Amino acid sequence: MIAHVYIELKKGVADPEGENTKKALQLLGFDGVRDVRTIKVFRIELDELDEDQGKRKVEEMCEKLLANPVIHNYRIEIG
Amino acid sequence: MIAHVYIELKKGVADPEGENTKKALQLLGFDGVRDVRTIKVFRIELDELDEDQGKRKVEEMCEKLLANPVIHNYRIEIG
Questions:
Q1: What residues contact A20, with CB distance under 8 A and at least 6 apart?
Q2: CB contact under 8 A, A65 and B21
Q3: For residue A69, what pLDDT is reported?
Q4: What is the pLDDT of residue A62?
Q5: Nearest Cα to A17, choosing from A28, A29, A25, A5?
Q6: What is the pLDDT of residues A11-57, one digit of tens each?
Q7: Which fold has domain B2-78?
Q8: Least buried of A43, B41, B62, B70, by fewest C-beta within 10 Å?
Q9: Do B45 and A31 touch (CB under 8 A)?
Q10: pLDDT at residue A49, rounded to an integer
């Protein structure tokens, strides 16, 4: 089973990498770049076959390791 | 217009962050984690309204700044 975990910074949390990427794009002459935000994705390959059980497992991984609930929102996609 | 740029390491390119995440998950007691790979996503908000033109612009951004063709594959999603 493949799970993709999308980890995003919550609204209002500074994203310096996104900010700097925006500045760099502007310096390179790209006009009209209003905003750049970064999202981190983990592609996890699991032995688990049951979709619901796999999703629960990955949710636990997010809570224990992958995401920081103070600053992150996360979303899991299976398959 | 919103564009999402997915930047992945090419097959065969080492992903130390993914490797270490896998090890950490195993140490935390998660069984059956076969592989973990990381993907970087840029969410770019553009003033551009024309989809084709926006996509071409973002492709140029990838070539000039966001992706390294030696080690990365990238994919752009509009909307």
A1: none
A2: yes
A3: 96
A4: 98
A5: A25
A6: 999 999 999 999 999 999 999 999 999 999 999 999 988 999 999 99
A7: Mth169; Chain: A , (3.30.1280)
A8: B70
A9: no
A10: 87
Q: How far apart are CA A4 and CA A72, in angstroms?
A: 16
Domain range list for chain A: 2-78
Provide the 10 A C-beta neighbour count for residue A16.
8
Query: Quick check: A28 contacting B, CB < 8 Å?
Result: yes
Q: Name the stretches of chain B with pLDDT < 70.
A: none
Contact status, residue B16 vs residue B78, Cβ threshold 8 Å: no
Tokens 């799970």 correspond to: A3
Q: Where residue A79 falls among pLDDT bands split at 50, 70, 90?
A: confident
H or E segment and range at residue B25: helix B16-27
CB of B36 within 8 Å of a chain A CB? The answer is: yes
Which single residue is written with the structure tokens 């962050």?
B17
Question: What dihedral angle (degrees, nearest 10) is formed by the CA atoms of B7, B13, B16, B20?
Answer: 90
Closest CA to A58 of B16, B25, B8, B15: B25
